[in-house]
Amino acid sequence: MSLLRACSLAKCLGRRSLADVRRCFAERCQLCVSVRSAAVRRISETPVCLQRRNISSVILKSEDAKKRVHEQSQLLDVLKARIQQLQSDVVLDVQHAKVQFLKSPSFGGGVSSGRTVKGSSKDKSDIPKSGQVVTKGASKSQPSRWMKKLSEENINKLKKQQILQQKVQRNAKEKLPGKSKASKSSLMPTGTTHKTMSSSAKKRRGGTKLSDEIRSSVSSAATVTAATSSKAAEALKTSKQKQRDSQSKVSDKDATKKTKDGDLTEIEELEKRLDEQVQQRIHLSTTESFQESSTGSSCGDIQLSIRSYLEACVFIGDIERSQNFLVSQHRVMSRRKHLTTDVYNIMMRVWAKKGTLNQIGRIFILMEEAGLKPNVGSYSAALECMGRNPNSPPKVISRCLNQMKKDGLCVDDLFRECVFQQDERDMLLKAVQTVKPDYEPSLTLNASQCSSPLVQDFYTNREHHIYPKLDFTQEELQRCFQCQLSVEQACTITIDSVEAMKPVTENMVKMRELLAEQRAQWQKVLLQALRENKMILTKTNTRDYKLNLYPYLCLLEDKEYVDIMIQSVSNLPPSGESLKILAHDLGNRIYTKYCVRQKHQNGIVEKLRSIYDAYTELLAKDTKVYNVLPREQWCKLEMEQSSGPTLQGAETSWPYVLMLELGTFIVDIMVKNLKINSDILNPAYDRKCIPILYHMYTFRSTRQVGFIKPHPILTQMQQEAMETTLTFDSSVMPMLCPPVPWTSEKFGAYLLTPAKLMRTTHGATQHEELLEKCPNLHPVFDSLNQLSNCAWMINKPILDIIISIFNDRGSDKLDIPPPLSEAPKIPHFNPQDPAYTASEKAHMKREVINAKKKCSEMHSLRMDALYKLSIAHHMRDKLFWFPHNMDFRGRTYPCPPYFNHLGSDVTRATLMFAEGKPLGPKGLDWLKIHLVNLTGLKKRSSLQGRLEYADSIMEDILDSADNPLNGKKWWMEADEPWQALACCMEIANAVRSPDPTKFVSHFPVHQDGSCNGLQHYAALGRDVIGATSVNLMPCEVPQDVYSGVAQQVEELRTRDAAKGLKIAQVLEGFISRKVVKQTVMTVVYGVTRYGGRLQIEKRLKEIDEFPKEHVWDASHYLVRLVFSGLKEMFTGTREIQDWLTESARLISKCGHTVEWVTPLGLPIIQPYHRTRNLVLKSTMQHINLQISHDTKERPDTVKQKNAFPPNFIHSLDSTHMMLTSLHCYSAGLTFVSVHDCFWTHALTVDTMNKICREQFVALHSQPILQGLSNFLLLKYCSTIQREAKNKKYQEYRRLMLLLAKVPQTGDFDLQRVKESTYFFS
């Protein structure tokens, strides 16, 4: 815009008198100074403010006419030169302002900003100095300095252009053809672009049609932007820096002559090798782009908030609010930097649906002014709008398509990459077919195979694969889908509580009636309060750029918000809940309902039904056999039914802070408006309205935490009512149909409920960014889909016994929590009573605190058991599935949180495979061995010994099955009593059947890894002694590493006791496998001596006979012995662990987070950064958020180094599990896992064991540590800045040397694992 006014000024000066010039100059320059929003580079390079001030001072002092004429003519020359320079500049955003100024006057005021001069500090500092020069009358010297500056800028610009063109040519040769095409179009010769812009500007002056305006706006959208220019300048600067670095290399070598020659030579070789790898690996550019995006992710939450707000406004139909908000954000440069192309596209889609082409043109203009380049979404919106408009000229569509082509995009990209809603795709296709009648989108499946050699054969050689079918007909599966769809559409589900089986008393009926009456009243009050608060919100924060909660409170019906509030009151524990947790839970429920409604509005439900109905053909038992995986079949069906909305990636996740803010607002309404009469339970009390919720503060450790606590009256009413129903979110329940297969990082699991592929900390985005950039995650998707496709059923006899004990008085021994009536009574005393001494008062206070803590723990455990048993009871006659996802290390988990096979002994005992398989010749033996494993009695016996033991106690087994509660109760003594009882019943049914080999068993048999973390360490280090200790080596009987360590510790203790050490003497007879097991198990996962001491202390306290006064000293003593024993037994393990720890320490010290890629290609990054405090201000309280995942903060070195070894091992055990699951699926097996514990039918245990061992050997036959070393060297040492040698060269050198020195391996032969019976057993 400033350029346009400068042009008009030049014309004015050319044909007006000198007096007119003075007036014109004052007016025009005032405009030039006040506007800069359309230009990326400020016009402050030419000090217009300075000139205006100089000239005004000259005029005010009435100098002679010659000086004025001379100065004006000099200034005219300068302005003309500046205009020519700007017109030939690579940065064309200045010219975009012409479009806005001429054709969009309504946006002109909104886009311009009066804050330009205020932000230009450079101009301010120059003004006083120049002002002094003008006052002295030396005006002739100043214009010559301007001209000199202009000429220097022109020379520098020409040099930059030449270097830039050379760099582009070099890059074009190095890059792939597809990429070079895109880069070439994004760096068009400036002359061509300028010509396009100039011609469009000429047309605008003459007054053009609406279609011409859109055409030129779409055309200009593809031109070079400020971002391109800045990147080019940055590349130029980097290349110059590299030249300087190469010149200074000799001096650096001289400075390091004092170092050892060997190290120096090794470092030089490493640097040379890394440089070669950098040159060869094209994907490094992807890494660099990721680093750029991650450095710019500081405003990620702000961008997400802006996008969420716009989408919410659009969803509720408040287009005016959304448009005003976008324009107000764009208007100010400090807020404009948070806008992305996708944000502008949101409004483009709105106007595209309305067919208003001129509004889309205006948004294109705003994007250009922001220095943003249109993407496929932008072009899609423009073409969709043309498709909706029957009068759109084909010429306009052609011009748009041509401009897309120049911008490196093709029409197929639109259909392949865009996320469509409703009929957007059809309208886009209609527009394209207007000019290309024969065009059909060319959509191809992503056939790229995983680069990992571990699964190449799995995907390429399928002739022997036998993919299992589910034991359902296609019609049954389609009915299951409809049931699950109904549940998810409702978002919540109400089920019967197992406590409803208790006999109903008169008091229970009374309390239930009271609660129902109160809830009806609370609903009316909350509805009124919500509407009043919404009215207040519409009148406050009326500034367009302010984010307001109002749109989020209109996403659902008012009654739905009230139902969410009432449900949260019912679920509130008596001890209360943290405001932060409660607020996030409420915000998340609103978000889930909003996502489901969004999918309804976008027309996704009908398309999902159509694709799923066809997908069931792959799974059903009454259809033909397919040789494809579920993911492949789903993608194929999506491609075939491409018309209509896109199923994937439709919803935008809300920021954590937004959910908290919205939830806090809702909680505030509840606290202020929910009241009850104080005499409702006791008419003797005075009647007054009291709140049922209290906002109070409590201390968690040393921090003060806001709490929402229910009034004791409400708690008493709920406990005495023992209500018959429970209400859950639909995502809490298992699915009633096979889950949607994971096909991308954003789509899979539930039908409508949003789910994440990777579980992360709230607000952490680095994992999602890595996954999106990962080229191929097919093995990970396919493994998760295999786990999710396992159908389950309830073991009804076991469930009924558990519920009967639960409704009686519970049982601590059997892990069934008792009711609160069994809780210890809280003692009451008066602290002011003088009868108590100070020590007695302190003792009583501790008693009260302990009693309250015990009550709170009992309530939590009781409610957890109630939820699990009620869900199991609800599913007792149904078949169901558990959708799976994973954590950031790749470990898999079922999505439903309460009831799943990863739960406790009680939960696992109630689960059975829905599909049954005959036991076969060895199935009954495996059931017996599994039962003995569950008892924990014969851990060091051979399989044959366990089988003989099972046969010897067959009478007890049958008695347990027949009389579990009234017989000998042998099963109650097992380590896992409920699973043991379930196995007893299965064995009893099998041996009593006519032919046990044909008995159809649904029971899952487990094969557990023998200290799996140490197994991976031993395999990595090829450690013979360590491998033998953890059963990688074939042995006659299983080696128990826990017993081995306990024995070693006992030997050391005996020696110390003989020397007279008192604590060693006290520990005589108390050192057992159980005391050391947890510490040995977790040492491999990074437990410290402090943590190990706490574990041993807990075990010693469980021993009633051990003197409690010696617990502290004994735990200190034992943890030292355990660590010493492990160091001797696992030398290779300790070396690898130390190497991983030190590597992570040096990497994080250099300012990086540790990142690696699993052998299956899953990228992993540790999200541990230094904690940053963020205060969320609300009307209730200020919530202090401790954010430890912010990529702007430096890494937390302690967490990074301590977590790397266990996280790396977890990533390996998850890889082993995924490989096993894939090959079990191709062999037709039913397979599920609990991390390192694998489950299958008794019939197929031998097959699963064979696959498990083969995949472990295949995994560790890969050069895992060497591959990790190469990755870390390339990641962290290839991009080191050379100037850092002066400051941090020692750390850089140490990191390079450490990463290059991979720990030496031993002589263990991995192939022996295939022969090891007890590797998994």
Q: Roughly what percent helix? A: 55-70%
Class computed from helices, strands and strand pairing? mainly alpha
Strand content: 5-15%
State the end-to-end CA separation: 76 Å
Shape: globular
Residue windows where pLDDT falls under 50 for at least 5 positions = 1-63, 87-146, 174-240, 246-253, 255-259, 282-298
Counting DSSP E segments of at least 2 residues, the number of strands comes to 23
Rg from alpha-carbon coordinates:
36 Å
- The helix tally amounts to 55
Strand sequence of the main sheet, in spatial order?
2-6-5
Tell me about the biggest sheet? Answer: 3 strands, antiparallel
Mean pLDDT: 79
In terms of quaternary structure, what is this? Answer: single chain
Domain DNA-directed RNA polymerase N-terminal: 482-789
Enzyme class: transferase
Family: Belongs to the phage and mitochondrial RNA polymerase family.
Biased composition (Polar residues): 183-200
Structural description of this entry:
The protein is mostly helical and 1321 residues long. Helix content is 60%, strand content 7%. The chain has 55 helices and 23 strands. Strands 2-6-5 form a 3-stranded antiparallel β-sheet. Strand 12 and strand 13 form a beta hairpin. Helix 51 crosses helix 52 (1197-1226). It is globular and about 105 Å long. It starts with a helix and ends in a 21-residue tail after the last helix. Residues 1-63, 87-146, 174-240, 246-253, 255-259 and 282-298 have low confidence and may be disordered. One of its GO terms (cellular component) is mitochondrial DNA-directed RNA polymerase complex. It is an enzyme of class 2 (transferase).
